[in-house]
Amino acid sequence: MASLRNADDPESGTPLNLLDLSDSPALTDESFKAALAGRASSLISISVTGCSELTDESIKAIGGCSSLTSLDVSGCGHLTDEALQSVARGCALTSVNVSGCRNLTDEAIKAIASRSLRNLNVAYCGKLLTDESLNAVAANCPSLTSLNVADCKFITDVSIREIAANCSTLTSLDVSRCKHLTDESIKALALGCTSLSSLNVRNCEKLTDSSIKALALLPSLSSLRIFGCRKLTDESIKSLAGCANLTTLDTTKTFREIFKASRS
């Protein structure tokens, strides 16, 4: 539902700082640019999630929003690298969500990877993204706290090791359905990202008990999703019994029962 927060008020002089046009699938480039007109300089957040008709023309117009820090274009499937590159040149973004934008390549992610970036969601952009994207994030985003690369099929241990080595402030990571990942990258995360509190490795089928045993040593781990990790055994689940802060464990019913019994 579209909303304008702190909308321009002739009497108060309060400028618009949040433009939320989410879930407006019929929104056109012309309508979006009309909503943006005259407000670009004060905007700090724009969300057009689910506005599936928007093209690069709309997103390029955002490049003039010099105060913009948060951008959500998830589900805008027509967007290309050119749009994100234009935004990156004009804005110091701290939060970017491009999930479901399947036409984006590594060039778009490299463009938005900067020292200011703290939250990045590229889930379901797996058709074209590779380790090159995450290597750029690891090299340029030392303050990253949240990363979602779910279903990015070409991501491997190589880039996740780089994230582990360079993004020590990471607290939330989703690598579900990244089926090339092995114990090597998960153990690297356990060593390098000790503040990690939420991890989703659903359907990472190569992971074994050694990954989970390493994760069990994370002091702040509160949410772990391991459903579909078929090589795991009872030993993994028992090792998690000592995780005092673990409140969400997404796994099979049998494993959940083992976890409860191990804690009692």
From TrEMBL:
Any single Gene Ontology cellular-component annotation: SCF ubiquitin ligase complex
Q: Where is the F-box/LRR-repeat protein 15-like leucin rich repeat domain?
A: 97-217
SMART domains xref list: LRR_CC (SM00367)
- Where is region (Disordered) located? 1-20
Q: Which InterPro entries match?
A: FBXL15_LRR, Leu-rich_rpt, Leu-rich_rpt_Cys-con_subtyp, LRR_dom_sf
State any GO BP term from the record. SCF-dependent proteasomal ubiquitin-dependent protein catabolic process
Record's Pfam families? DUF7885, LRR_6
Official protein name in the record: F-box/LRR-repeat protein 15-like leucin rich repeat domain-containing protein
Species in which this protein is naturally found:
Triparma verrucosa
